[in-house]
Design brief:
Radius of gyration: 17 Å
Number of strands: 2
Strand content: under 5%
Structural class: mainly alpha
Largest sheet: 2 strands, antiparallel
Order of helices and strands: HHHHHHHHHEE
């Protein structure tokens, strides 16, 4: 997520919110509803080879989001993992993060309510915090394309209610943008050591949640999320 101009505007809010909130920035959703990680690393080499041999890339139909938006409620649910004194500020921060995500998605040329885009934001935002490095737009786009090719979100949407998928979309987008903005804020003004450690630990657990492996073995590049030895 390169050149997040809004990071400058909301850095002060995020700095204050994170400094007060010694909570866990999780997805706020029981991800056990799916039995497989969002990216199947075992099949990735086969998919890449097939794409190279055929000269084409396989893409699944995008998951549909039929339920109405519930941004405020989902922001409030995410904020509940923080101390009561920080929940109002964190709700506001998550709602603002949703606005930022929508602007990013529009810049990337994605359709509105794109679950793959939101899941890519979740992965990339947490990776930025965990790996302590920026992720350029082309790598971010590659992660979203990787998710679309795998079709995991579409299969998940077929098994779950419309409301559940709406919640997954909004919370993924909020947490992903929030973590990316937290990373940007950290680059501008270093956070207290304990705050930075809490964010990185949260990023590690979030990535484990959706990718099914320790993020120490992951890297993001122009091919998407890659498993490295």
């Amino acid at each position: 997520m390169r050149r997040l101009r809004q990071a400058v505007l909301c850095a002060a809010l995020l700095t204050a919110s994170v400094a007060r909130a010694q909570g866990y920035v999780g997805l706020g959703l029981d991800y056990s509803m799916t039995t497989a990680p969002m990216i199947n690393f075992a099949n990735m080499a086969v998919m890449n080879n097939n794409a190279m041999n055929t000269g084409a890339r396989s893409r699944s139909k995008p998951a549909r989001l039929d339920a109405p938006p519930a941004v405020q409620r989902n922001a409030q649910e995410l904020a509940r993992v923080f101390p009561a004194s920080s929940q109002a500020a964190m709700t506001q921060a998550f709602q603002h993060s949703m606005d930022i995500y929508q602007q990013i998605a529009a810049k990337m040329g994605w359709q509105r309510d794109d679950l793959d885009g939101a899941m890519a934001a979740f992965i990339v935002g947490n990776y930025m915090v965990f790996a302590n490095r920026d992720v350029p737009d082309e790598e971010f786009a590659a992660v979203a394309e990787q998710l679309r090719e795998g079709g995991g979100t579409r299969r998940l949407a077929e098994k779950q209610s419309a409301g559940t998928i709406r919640n997954l979309y909004e919370k993924s987008a909020m947490v992903g943008a929030f973590m990316a903005l937290a990373y940007k804020s950290q680059q501008q003004k270093a956070q207290p050591e304990q705050v930075a450690a809490n964010l990185r630990n949260s990023a590690r657990e979030n990535l484990k949640l959706v990718l099914g492996t320790d993020p120490e073995h992951l890297q993001i590049d122009e091919r998407g999320v890659m498993l490295v030895k």
